[in-house]
Amino acid sequence: MKGMSERFVRLSVVALLGVVLLAVALLLVPRLGKSGQPEATFDEGAPLDVRNRYPAQCPVHATPLADDTVPVSYGLPDFAPVFAGDSYGRQMDLFPYAEVKYANGCVISDDSPWRAQVRYCSDCRDARSAYFADGQRQ
Ligand SMILES: [Zn+2]
């Protein structure tokens, strides 16, 4: 009989631990996105305003920059060369103020912004679109 009750207590402890772990998992899962980072929507929080960091006009196209609100990215840029010999520097030479998103460094916290108010050049955005459309044909 003593052996039976010890086994019962051991099973109960294991079951209790299982329930606790399941509860913790259920609490955490809704807060995490697929990447393991907190899920965020673009409606949350005030956007980061970086519009004072831009020149009045694009140095490549001489086009006056316009206001826009774009997603903020964190971590290493997802730059992918599309042409042989391509580089981030070359893209910056061709369309320096496309500003389709704003890279805000690698440090992320609970109150990190997910949108940024930027200024962009419409000709840079056209050049960027054409550049990547060409790249996909190769
Ligand atoms: Zn431009």
The helix-and-strand class reads alpha/beta
Residue-averaged pLDDT, rounded?
80
Supply the number of structural domains: 2
Order of H and E elements: HEEHEEH
Distance between the termini: 77 Å
Total E-strand runs: 4
What molecules are bound to this protein? Answer: zinc ion
What does this structure look like?
This protein folds into two domains: 2-31; 48-137, no CATH class. The protein is 36% helix and 13% strand. It has three helices and four strands; from the N terminus they run αββαββα. The chain has helices at residues 2-28, 88-94, 122-137; strands at 48-49, 66-73, 102-103, 115-120. It has a four-stranded mixed β-sheet. The model has no long low-confidence stretch (mean pLDDT 80). The chain binds zinc ion (ZN). Zinc ion (ZN) binds next to helix 3.
Secondary-structure topology with pairs:
Layout: H1 2-28, E1 48-49, E2 66-73, H2 88-94, E3 102-103, E4 115-120, H3 122-137
Parallel strand pairs: 1-4, 2-3
Antiparallel strand pairs: 2-4
Could you give a quick summary of the protein structure above?
The protein is built from 3 helices and 4 strands, in the order αββαββα.
Could you name the key traits of this structure?
138 residues, alpha/beta, 2 domains, four-stranded mixed beta sheet, 4 strands, elongated, binds zinc ion
